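Thread amino acids onto this structure.
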């Protein structure tokens, strides 16, 4: 996919981004690795046939990651993405200035990962061919010694298969942990949003309660004023007041109607505030539910971390077993080479005896 004749320090692709690393203590929070946006580049190492992601901040390398076929770059927002490096035991995060830069880096990451897969396949095929040529080098040997070599070689294939299986399981759990961390951060953001809404509703509720008390006092005063005006109207009607009293009656009746309309409006406002209070209780319930889900996600992450530790231990044991088997196979091959050489000497001696 990329030309293999590039120089070792020749970058394949470069972009600028803010670099972060996951907090090793919490495995959730991000720690800035650079104060400003820095260059993040893909390199191809022709000597080792590997692809690397390198970023230098000041005088030190803040990213030095070898790309493997099992790595996955995940977009967690419109301008942010992350990937896990199991060799460095960390998770890198990149914050880009635009969504287009994030998309370009993600596509290049996929291309480099596919190229790394092809390079690894070619390297493994070359190693297998060299091993086969080494075993089959003495063309004059008889078939039984060659058959003896095939047994340990089968064990080597089985060891490599077990190693690949364990690596796949480890990467799958790493991916689950990464997804769990993303869900964890989303829940945390949702919880913060609910807490902010909750604080706003609490402030509004306190203000509404204060207004309700004030309105209740005003309502009691209006009711007293209404009763007083009604008593005045009834007193005027009872004593049969003259013409000017009719005008006063009309004014009192109008004031009474205005007070009744005001009372009705205040009752509606009190009803609205009571409905807001019900919404506040619903928000409290939603906040409690988010807290519960957040705690469940923390427990799930702890379980995934425990499974990863067990898988890493199993992988380490498998690698040690494979190294031990490789040593035994090499020792067996050396012994077989010696036996074959002795048999060849014996054959030549027998030929000379027959010629005599």
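Threaded sequence (356 positions):
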């Amino acid at each position: 996919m990329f030309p293999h004749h590039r120089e070792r320090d020749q970058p394949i692709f470069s972009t600028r981004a803010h670099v972060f690393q996951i907090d090793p203590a919490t495995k959730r929070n991000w720690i800035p690795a650079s104060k400003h946006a820095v260059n993040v580049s893909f390199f191809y190492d022709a000597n080792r046939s590997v692809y690397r992601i390198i970023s230098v901040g000041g005088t030190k390398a803040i990213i030095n990651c070898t790309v493997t076929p099992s790595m996955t770059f995940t977009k967690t927002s419109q301008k942010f993405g992350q990937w896990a490096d199991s060799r460095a035991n960390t998770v890198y995060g990149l914050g880009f200035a635009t969504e287009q830069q994030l998309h370009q880096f993600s596509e290049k990451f996929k291309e480099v990962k596919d190229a790394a897969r092809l390079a690894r396949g070619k390297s493994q095929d070359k190693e297998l061919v060299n091993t086969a040529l080494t075993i089959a080098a003495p063309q004059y040997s008889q078939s039984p010694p060659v058959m003896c070599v095939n047994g340990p070689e089968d064990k080597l294939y089985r060891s490599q298969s077990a190693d690949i299986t364990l690596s796949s399981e480890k990467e799958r759990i790493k991916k689950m942990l990464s997804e769990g961390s993303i869900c964890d951060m989303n829940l945390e953001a949702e919880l913060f949003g609910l807490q902010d809404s909750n604080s706003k509703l609490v402030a509004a509720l306190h203000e509404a309660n204060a207004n309700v008390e004030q309105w209740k006092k005003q309502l009691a005063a209006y009711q007293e004023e209404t009763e007083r005006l009604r008593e005045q109207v009834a007193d005027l009607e009872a004593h049969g007041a003259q013409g000017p009293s009719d005008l006063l009656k009309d004014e009192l009746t109008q004031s009474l109607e205005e007070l009744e309309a005001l009372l009705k409006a205040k009752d509606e406002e009190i009803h609205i505030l009571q409905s807001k209070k019900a919404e506040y209780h619903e928000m409290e319930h939603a906040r409690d539910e988010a807290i519960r889900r957040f705690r469940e996600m923390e427990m799930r992450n702890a379980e995934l971390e425990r499974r990863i530790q067990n898988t890493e231990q199993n992988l380490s044991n498998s690698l040690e077993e494979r190294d031990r088997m490789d040593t035994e196979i090499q020792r067996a091959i050396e012994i077989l080479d010696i036996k074959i050489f002795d048999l060849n000497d014996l054959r030549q001696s027998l030929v000379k005896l027959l010629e005599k």
